Amino acid sequence: MVKKLNKVIIVSGGMDSVTLLHKIVQDFGAGNIYALTLNYGQRHAKEIECATWQCAQLGVNHLVVDITSISPLLKGSALTDDVAVPEGHYEDENMKMTVVPNRNMIFLSLAIAYAVSVGANEVYYGAHTGDHAIYPDCRPIFVERMNAAAEVANYEAVKVVTPFDTFDKGDIVVLGTELGVPYEHTWTCYKGQEKACGKCGACTERLEAFGKAGRTDPIDYEV
């Protein structure tokens, strides 16, 4: 039996998924990677633009799928609804307003279907330890259970892989620096303004990560 080398990766255009994209391209080759970006009605499209740029530069197969029709099912989050984006650190209680209901289960289900259709045996996404405090669908127990389902949901098993599950965001920047990731073409801020706000949880953690890695973040901030 021919071993399946194709891999599917969920690429949002943020620094975590982009770093992971560069890592698996290095490991498996661009021709074996199928990147999936989902437009689910999020507050802005800047991340999608970054995902498209990164995939084009790497020569990776890239599919952007519009699933905005499900946005009425994803209400109550500051990322998908008319709710003010909270400011502060990821571990602050108010950051729960940025949780999109069941997002990663939806995304992974679609990515697993895509994997079956392109003959891929693995689906990658960039969950890391910094997400655990606020996002249930990034925690190891969720990945474990989702992976168990992925292995039996189709005639051919698909594995959910989270290489950053022991990394914090600073570790990701260190790895990305080694890989030469162009972070100026990533977007992390929850707001869709011309410049990153520098105050929301995503910006706060990103700036801390670059500080830990001893690097200057190449994107512009309002503050």
Main traits of this protein?
5 strands, Rossmann fold, alpha/beta, 223 residues, 6 helices, five-stranded parallel β-sheet, globular
Structure description:
The chain is an alpha/beta fold. The chain has a single domain, classed as 3-Layer(aba) Sandwich (Rossmann fold). 35% of the residues lie in helices and 12% in strands. It contains six helices and five strands. The protein has a five-stranded parallel β-sheet with strand order 3-2-1-4-5, sandwiched between helices. Strand 4, helix 4 and strand 5 form a beta-alpha-beta unit. The longest helix is centred in the middle third of the chain and has 16 residues. The model has no long low-confidence stretch (mean pLDDT 87).
In short, what is this structure?
The protein is of the alpha/beta class and 223 residues long. It has 6 helices and 5 strands.
Mean pLDDT across all residues, rounded? 87
Radius of gyration: 17 Å
N/C terminus separation: 56 Å
The top-level CATH class is Alpha Beta
Number of helices: 6
What is the number of beta strands?
A: 5
Percent helix? 25-40%
- Give start-end ranges of low-pLDDT stretches: none
Query: Strand order across the biggest sheet?
Result: 3-2-1-4-5
N-to-C SSE string, H for helix and E for strand: EHEHEHEHEHH
Beta-sheet strand percentage?
A: 5-15%
How many domains? 1
Which second-level CATH architecture applies?
3-Layer(aba) Sandwich
User: Strand count, sense and closure of the main sheet?
Assistant: 5 strands, parallel
Shape call: globular
Structural class: alpha/beta
The CATH homologous superfamily corresponds to HUPs
CATH-derived topology:
Rossmann fold
